[in-house]
Amino acid sequence: MAGKTLYLGPRLKKLRRDLGLTQAIMAADLEISASYIALMERNQRPVTAEMLIKLATTYRVDVGELADVNADQTVARLQGVLRDPVFSDIAIEPLDIEDIATSYPGVAEALLRLHTAFGEEQLALAERREGDGAHGDPGPTGSAGGDAIGEARAFLAARRNCFSELDDSAAALAGSLNSFETMRVYLAENHELDLRLSDDGLLRSALRWHDYHRRRVYVAERLDDGGRRFQAALQIAILEQGKVIADISSEGRVAGEDGKRLVQRALQSYWAAALLMPYRAFARAAADLRYDIEALCSRFSVSFQQAAHRLTTLQRPGEEGVPFFFLRVDRAGNVSKRLDGAGFPFARHGGACPLWNVHRAFERPDEVNAQMIELPDGERYVSIARTVRGGGGAFGAPSVMRSVAIACAAVHRDKLIYGTVLADAKPTPIGVACRMCHRPRCIARSAPPIGREIVPARFRESGMPFDFSMD
């Protein structure tokens, strides 16, 4: 701490008031003048290392609480928030940001919460407008307030699907809980629970069952090692992360009970994934391996979907990885999961364009496919897609094949191992949805765009599903 000037006015004042002391009494305790206390509380004098130690020993408080060892993280979070285009015309010096984070932590936290709420409101407004524009009436799912899935997605997207508190607590245990066996021992020693593998006869096709009365946790033996560890980690999250998850959830604008439950489940799963793939280790490996998803699967003993999912979470301020968007669809084109750490245009809507490789992946199951895509506005993205399988693992067990894709802006192409094969690739033009796509000649079109007049075909057949006027 020597050599670093600390201005701790608000914290010093809070400490004094919490202890029920006047400035004069504190001054007497510390053997300094009351005026000097007043100057320190107004940040007109720094708190020296000697004074910090004296405060800690006199009042038996943790030096870390006074000095705020998390100030650097707050600075990084503020810097990330202040990069928002809404602040682009305001010149804010880096030293000013540090001063706010260090000297006025309450103001810093207030600004961070306001910006998160602002992001949620933007997403909700975008969804309402999308519902009005595309369907005429938003209906029961046209706004985030009436759609549990929409509420949960908005909550995650507003926070870029990154939760440092959960990453930190998972990382603290990751080294000692690196196998199913170590998790079994941990649950026995810390929760008096017996973790066992079981067949479908007992589980009735469930993946995990906490038998509360017998104090046992059963995990389906048909799961692979990554699936077994994830279910065990999920049980630990449910048992130990309730308060942290409740605190994070309470900051959102999720109104419905179903939405709150979905957010809670998402955060529990986030913690479990963070235990299997600790943030710093995974982010470092992703960069070293050039975001090779299959190589990440091998290194962390997880599935393709788990690794792809985790890549969307690498947006911790100051430690960001490539920002990815995640989409999972079935053969019918139904979207069962979206996660956005990239500000992707499909984050709230779209994903139905059949020209996107997330749909074409079904043609070549289990094969990783890379594609350069271009939206109507000219923006280009790298998309990596592959099929994944859910269920199965035993004769007669139901299973489903889905396709997952992660996409990032083309500017990050050179950071990806897939960028090599796309260096000279011609981008595939795709749209958000046929009704919103105005590309004139698309053989895959299923509906004409809104606002365009269908052209009569009396004298010419173009071969396109719909000919429409571009006037």
Automatic annotation (TrEMBL):
Q: Does the keyword DNA-binding apply?
A: yes
Identify its protein family: Belongs to the short-chain fatty acyl-CoA assimilation regulator (ScfR) family.
Whose protein is this, by species? Aurantiacibacter atlanticus
**Pfam families per UniProt:** HTH_3 (PF01381), Peptidase_M78 (PF06114), ScfRs (PF09856)
The organism that produces this protein has a lineage beginning with:
Bacteria, Pseudomonadati, Pseudomonadota, Alphaproteobacteria, Sphingomonadales
| Protein name, as recorded | Putative Xre family transcriptional regulator
- Transmembrane segments in this chain: where? none
Q: Which UniProt keywords apply?
A: DNA-binding, Transcription, Transcription regulation
Q: Which InterPro entries match?
A: Cro/C1-type_HTH, HTH_RamB, IrrE_HExxH, Lambda_DNA-bd_dom_sf, ScfR_C, TransReg_Diox_bact_type
> Molecular function terms in GO for this entry?
DNA binding; DNA-binding transcription factor activity
Domain HTH cro/C1-type span(s) in chain numbering: 12-66
PROSITE patterns from the entry?
A: HTH_CROC1 (PS50943)
